[in-house]
Amino acid sequence: MRSKIINISLPEPLLKEIDKSASREARTRSDFFRQAARNYLSSRAELDVLYKYGRAQAKKLGVKTEADVAKLVSEFRAGR
Q: Quick one: residue 64, left, alpha or beta (phi over 0 = left, psi -120 to 50 = alpha)?
């Protein structure tokens, strides 16, 4: 797979923490950032699935506002 060099700016204290973490794991900065990007994208994909499900459920229940949510929560608690 072909790689591309990029430049990013980070606050120095954050970079020091990244370097410490990478060093503890015997990794390079590049390895650290590649894995961080993979983790972020994977988490984001999982959240997107959850949000999609939540939107479908809200539509199914006719929930459009926070007041609708509060009403459903109140009804649920009353039914316990």
A: alpha
Tokens of 40: 């972020």
- Provide CB contacts within 8 A for 58, sequence distance 6+: 64
Confirm whether pTM is higher than 0.85. Answer: no
Q: How far is CA 31 from CA 8, 9, 14, 22, 36, in A?
A: 15, 17, 16, 8, 8
Ordered DSSP codes for 19-66: HHHHHHTT--HHHHHHHHHHHHHHHHHHHHHHHHHHHHHHHHHT--SH
Q: What is the pLDDT, as a whole number, of residue 79?
A: 86
